[in-house]
Every structure is written in C-alpha cells, then in structure tokens.
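Consider today's protein:

***
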Amino acid sequence: MSPFLEARQVRKLFPGRSGRICAVDGVSLALQPGEVLALVGESGCGKSTLALMLAGLERATAGQVCFEGEEIAGFDRARLKALRRRIQVIFQDPYESLNPTMSVGQLVAEPLLVHGLAPDRASRAAQVARALEAVGLSGDFADRRPHQLSGGQRQRVAIAIALVLEPVLLVADEPVSMLDASIRAGILNLLADLRRERGIGVLFITHDLAAAACLADRVAVMYLGRIVEQGPAQAVLSGPRHPYTRALLEALPVTDPRQRRLRALLGGETPSPAQIPEGCRFHSRCPLAMARCAHCDPSPVTAGLQHQAACLLLEEGAGK
C-alpha cells in the first residue's frame, strides 16, 4: 500500500542569534491510510515542527512533503486550503486553543464557515451536534463556554473542532500531556475509537512511550532533529535497538516494587540544535558510546522487519 502522506529527507532551518538552527534534519517518514504513528521524543527535539510541515502549516527548507504522491510545496492557496481540511491538528493545551469569548457551538462551527460548508444555520447546528456526539459530549454542550468545561471536556471539544470537517488524518500534538492521568485514558480511548470507526489516521506526537504503546501501530523516535529509530510499535517498544529509545523506556515509572531494576538513567542535557555535535548526536549522553561515536554519524540500519535504528553498535553487530 502506498503512503498517503510522506516526508522525504525533510529539513527545517530557523534563524538564530549565532546562525541558523536546524530543527529537523533529513527526516524521512511515511503514514499509511488509517494508521496511527507515534512520534516520540523529548521536548525540543523537532516533533512539533515536523508535524506542522506534514500538515502543510509550515514550509520545509529542504526535502519534500508529499500528500497522495504530490509534493505540497507546489500547491496553490486553494489546494493548500483543501489539504488543511483533510489534515486537522489537535493542539496540546485545551486551555489555550479555545477562544474563551465563543460558545462551544460557535467554536465547532467555525471550520465549517472558513471552508464554506453548511452555509445555513440548521445544517451547521446538525453537523456540530454530530461532531460533539462523536467525542462523547451531548448537544447541550454547544451552549457552554470553555471556562465552564473541565480539562478533558475542553480537549474533547478541540477534537470535535478537528472532526467536523471529516478529515483523513488527525495530527495530535501532545493531546494528553496537560491532562490528569485519570482523564488521559479517556482521550486515548477516544482517539482509538475514532480510528477504528472512521478509519482516520493519527500522527500522535508525545514524549510518553507508555501513551504511544496504548495507541500506535508504528513508533518513530526522534532526537535532536533526526529519527533515530522507527518500526512496528511492538518491535520498537519490546526490543528497542537504539540506546536513546532504551533510555526513554527505562524512564517509565514502575509501580510494582518486584519489577524495579537498576536503570540506565538518561544523563546530561540535550545539546542545542544551534550547536549540533559532530558524529552521533546522542553520543554525549549515551551510556554505550564508543570513541568513534564522537566522529561517525550513523546511518539507519535494519534491525528487524520494517524496523530501523541509526546506531554504530548495530553497524558493528553489537547492538543486541
């Protein structure tokens, strides 16, 4: 099956005080129709910038972003607008993403007005009601204001705003990180239900591998602007081949004392994207680093069926 959305050696540079900052550096990634791909990494690694490029909201400095086989850099304004109708973004903070002066009904109806859909009030109201019902909210929520809602209800409204245009892909940027643990499961279950019932693809951006395990078909792990490991979720999460992925998994909390073990703690600070180190960009924090890691930049190596990792240990056959 051909991917419907693809990044090919994508780079994104931003101006900085001491030169250009490389937020995304040579990333290749593909999403299949109806797939959930989790993009995982620490804050500042470039996840959100990559997602905005995939959604057509940010232009790549180099490389290609292709939708249904066509490079979106060549789209005119009308085609970009049509693309943004089909790819909708759910932002991280439901407290900041909803206009407090508008009712829930107005918020959910606004994309319909922007795209010239459902021009009469009755049809808009019907579509708003369907979108709210799809996220588990009753129709009377349309008359409420954001300040009258809980955090979980606000995030459900944000998802309803994305759903009202019937997109083929949701780009969910840390959609549960601002929510209490008791509410996160409900939002993750909602995204899973939408994928199953509607066939919607999801690009799920998170720093939490546990959340990725609940939802994703595939996982891509990002560090300092690059994908360091990607593959089927079960393979990556049960048999990680890159030391960074292993460190992220080791950082997950263990509640059962019988399961506690010595941890390979992820030490040091992430280097600045304005001063990317030579060689493997993870070597300064890697507990398994070799002398050549400071000078050799690893390329992705096949670590299993559709499973790749960029690590010199794999190149030497010592990554088991």
In short: The chain has ten helices and twelve strands.
